């Protein structure tokens, strides 16, 4: 999971991009980067860490220009990020391009071979995002009818070439030196991407973002989502162009965005994340009434923060008291994306502390957005017992996560998923709860469709094992898991990088 931004403004872009990254910080806490363009020169600063730690005043001053892109990320391999793989990435041949990518390509190895053997292009890192950048650069060159010159037709033809060659999930922002801002989305629409505008006295400004909350907080009016397979190009004068560049595109948004990844105040593909989470709470309550009508729940307590809307609606629907039972330390990173199991286990009690008065002598229903590895759930159940709870029940607003995700979410290893190979009773025992209630997958899909009935299909592979791109095999999953284990053993030191890059060297 990553957060991306792209802007063509009438004033310096650096502060807008920085502020946007702060809003999207929840999408990645391991690395951050900003690249701007001033004349024919790119200026870039990126490094490991939170946005506030990567950028200082001197770094911001070194990012001139009215257009640029920005990126926050965590590594999909699950280990500490190599600072050389922090984004954006840059290439200078035959056109200067900087690119940021949210998602994960599933045919990276094939593309690497094609780039080396056929396209004669060199890739410096193991990042699939750098591979995607080089594919785009090659397609721009291959489709250009005039040497080192581009037009709108050529740019959109290049994106068509990217769609033809690249498989997997990708939402992309890129700046082409001397031309403008390019954004596009894979033909399945797995990762979110949207565009907003802002009218100024000097002219219209455009902002591309992973979530609508970035548009809202920066004062941009939401225009629309980027359609699956669509490319949007905004030249440096602020002229807006768009074209469908994929054959047979279909919308299949990642359903885990609504469960956990996105902020509740965002709207993705016409779906309010907050509204969806309320619906999830309602359907969970209905399941409890259906399967456990004589329940003895005294109080409903959410695991902060993303489960709060679901827990509140569940409590309201059941007519049970809702209470805040945990205080969250907001200066600890999200446990779901922490690199090592030991670090994750240690972080839970640093991140959450129980309010004993809300637990003592009560039968408590804890509500979380999902259960992935089970480590956090087990620790929280024990915290509730230590705080004096008589019984501890546990509800997940999402179905069991039984399969790895290969489209940009950090859950690639099957043996790390607590639900893989276990039934609900076994999972309940593993986390130490007295009872476990999972959301049903069809109820989850219905919860999203209630907010936008036009969405007919979802990318829900972590729940049902159906991979929408049709190219995922057991051998592929084995390869991903092996890479994950190798990544854990090869953590690189943190670092930062400043670049002033002549765009057409």
Walk me through this protein's architecture.
The structure is a single chain. The strands form 5 sheets. The chain has an 8-stranded antiparallel sheet. Strands 5-6-7-8-12-13 form a 6-stranded antiparallel sheet, with helices on one face. α4 (108-117) crosses α5 and α9 packs antiparallel against α14 (441-449). It has 16 helices and 23 strands. It has helices at residues 14-23, 51-54, 57-61, 108-117, 128-143, 152-165, 212-217, 256-261, 273-291, 308-318, 341-351, 375-386, 424-431, 441-449, 461-464, 474-488; strands at 2-8, 31-38, 41-48, 67-73, 89-91, 97-105, 168-176, 180-185, 194-199, 204-209, 221-225, 230-235, 240-244, 267-268, 271-272, 299-302, 321-322, 326-328, 352-354, 363-368, 391-396, 435-438, 496-502. The protein has 505 residues and is an alpha+beta fold. Helix content is 32%, strand content 25%. β16 (299-302), α10 and β17 form a beta-alpha-beta unit. The radius of gyration is 23 Å and the shape is globular. The mean pLDDT is 91.
Record the SSE blueprint.
Elements: E1 2-8, H1 14-23, E2 31-38, E3 41-48, H2 51-54, H3 57-61, E4 67-73, E5 89-91, E6 97-105, H4 108-117, H5 128-143, H6 152-165, E7 168-176, E8 180-185, E9 194-199, E10 204-209, H7 212-217, E11 221-225, E12 230-235, E13 240-244, H8 256-261, E14 267-268, E15 271-272, H9 273-291, E16 299-302, H10 308-318, E17 321-322, E18 326-328, H11 341-351, E19 352-354, E20 363-368, H12 375-386, E21 391-396, H13 424-431, E22 435-438, H14 441-449, H15 461-464, H16 474-488, E23 496-502
Parallel strand pairs: 16-17, 16-20, 20-21, 21-22
Antiparallel strand pairs: 1-4, 1-10, 2-3, 2-4, 3-23, 5-6, 6-7, 7-8, 8-12, 9-10, 9-11, 12-13, 14-15, 18-19
Helix pairs in contact: 4-5, 5-6, 9-10, 9-14, 11-12
């Amino acid at each position: 999971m990553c957060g991306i931004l792209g802007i063509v403004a009438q004033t310096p872009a650096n502060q807008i991009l920085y502020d946007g990254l702060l809003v999207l910080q929840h999408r990645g806490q391991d690395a951050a980067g900003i690249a701007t363009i001033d004349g024919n020169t790119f200026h870039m600063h990126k490094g490991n860490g939170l946005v506030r730690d990567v950028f200082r005043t001197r770094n911001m001053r070194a990012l001139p220009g009215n257009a640029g892109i920005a990126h926050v990320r965590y590594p999909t391999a699950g280990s500490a990020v190599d600072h050389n793989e922090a984004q954006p990435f840059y290439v200078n041949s035959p056109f200067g391009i900087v690119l940021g990518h949210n998602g994960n390509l599933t045919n990276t190895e094939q593309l690497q071979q094609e780039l080396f053997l056929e396209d004669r292009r060199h890739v410096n890192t193991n990042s699939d995002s750098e591979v995607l950048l080089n594919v785009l650069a090659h397609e721009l060159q291959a489709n250009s009818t005039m040497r080192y010159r581009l037009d709108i037709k050529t740019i959109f033809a290049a994106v068509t070439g990217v769609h033809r060659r690249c498989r997997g999930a990708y939402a992309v922002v890129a700046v082409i030196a001397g031309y403008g801002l390019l954004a596009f989305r894979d033909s399945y629409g797995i990762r979110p991407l949207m565009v907003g505008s802002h009218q100024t006295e000097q002219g219209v400004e455009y902002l591309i973002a992973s979530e609508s909350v970035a548009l809202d907080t920066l004062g941009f009016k939401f225009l629309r989502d980027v359609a699956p397979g669509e490319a949007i190009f905004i030249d440096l004068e602020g002229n807006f162009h768009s074209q469908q560049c994929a054959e047979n595109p279909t919308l299949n948004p990642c359903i885990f965005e609504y469960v956990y990844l996105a902020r509740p105040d965002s709207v993705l593909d016409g779906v309010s994340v907050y509204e969806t989470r309320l619906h999830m709470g309602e359907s969970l309550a209905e399941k409890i009434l259906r399967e456990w009508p004589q329940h003895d729940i005294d109080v409903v307590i959410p695991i902060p923060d993303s489960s709060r809307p679901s827990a509140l609606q569940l409590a309201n629907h059941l007519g049970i008291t809702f209470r805040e039972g945990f205080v969250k330390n907001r200066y600890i990173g999200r446990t779901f994306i922490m690199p090592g199991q030991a670090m994750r286990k240690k972080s839970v009690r640093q991140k959450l502390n129980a309010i004993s008065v809300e637990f003592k002598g009560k039968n408590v229903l804890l509500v979380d957005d999902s259960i992935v590895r089970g480590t956090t759930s087990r620790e929280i159940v024990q915290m509730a017992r230590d705080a004096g709870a008589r019984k501890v029940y546990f509800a997940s607003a999402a179905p069991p996560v039984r399969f790895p995700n290969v489209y940009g979410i950090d859950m690639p290893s099957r043996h790390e998923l607590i639900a893989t190979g276990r039934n609900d009773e076994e999972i309940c025992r593993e986390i130490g709860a007295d009872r476990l209630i999972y959301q049903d997958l069809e109820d989850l899909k219905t919860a999203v469709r209630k907010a936008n009935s036009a969405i007919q299909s979802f990318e829900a592979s972590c729940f049902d094992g159906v991979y929408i791109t049709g190219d995922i095999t057991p051998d592929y999953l084995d390869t991903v898991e092996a890479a994950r284990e190798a990544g854990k053993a090869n953590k690189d030191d943190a670092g930062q990088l400043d670049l002033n890059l002549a765009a057409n060297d």
